[in-house]
Amino acid sequence: MLYKNPACLYEPLKQSKYKNLRVGWSLVTMVLTPLPVLSTTTANYVSLPPHPTNDPPEPIDIAKCHKFIRNLEKEFNNMRAPEADLGEALVYEAKLTAAAIGGQAPNVTQAIVQQVMNAINQNMRGFEERIGERIIESERRTGERIGRLEGRVGGIEERIGERISRVERRITVIEGKVNEIQGDIRSLKDSMFQTERTAAALYNKAQGDGPEVRLKVVRFPDGGDPTAPPHNLPPLISLETIRGLNDRDKQSYVANYYPDAPRPPVLERDKLIAQAIGAPPYSL
């Protein structure tokens, strides 16, 4: 039968001559060990077994409890149930089993503790082994991934090196072409300056020596403009401007128009300047 108030009966039984009597389900399990209280996380994955309805519990009740324990151990191994929940469940299982087989009250607690400790130790050993296996497997996979990444990085570095080499070769080719173009531009500019210089001198020569004659500026042989920096000389627009040059400007004109010639006499400078720009020197 089920005791309506087994807590009131347990203490007298301990003190009476019937203390070795087997204590039934009502005392051992329903009062001393109610259904375990699971954490919220565990309750999402594992359902509690139903309360036994008979005294003592029947095999079907023990089987349901064992199934509950297996499910809880599975979630514990998957790290979705804390150790405290597993301990509570194992205590419940031990007391339920003791009630089913009619264990003596004084020995129930010791048997429960021993069973719980054995179960916890067994589960912890299995848990440690699985953790070790997972660590080894994780290290192996990590090593493989690192190896693959290193291989990919090495391949990327090699391809980047090849591309850099190709780019450098192309840059070298482009630089060579740029140098050629710059040389052509310099030659073209020199040719243009010489053409301009020759055209200006021919124009000046065709003007004669009248008072209304206006001459064009003739560049120096190196292409420099006499009126521009760094020379900044007065423009030679007529024979009068040649005569009006001071000694420093005359010497600068002669030195730039005749860079390889020795320094001429002072009286010859006006004629040399006029000759260089195409003006008739006999008029000076």
From TrEMBL:
Q: Which InterPro entries match?
A: Mug135-like_C (IPR013902)
Tell me the ranges covered by the Mug135-like C-terminal domain, including all copies: 202-279
Give a Pfam family name: Mug135_C
Q: Which family does it belong to?
A: Belongs to the UPF0612 family.
Q: What is this protein's record name?
A: Mug135-like C-terminal domain-containing protein
Query: Which species?
Result: Leucocoprinus leucothites
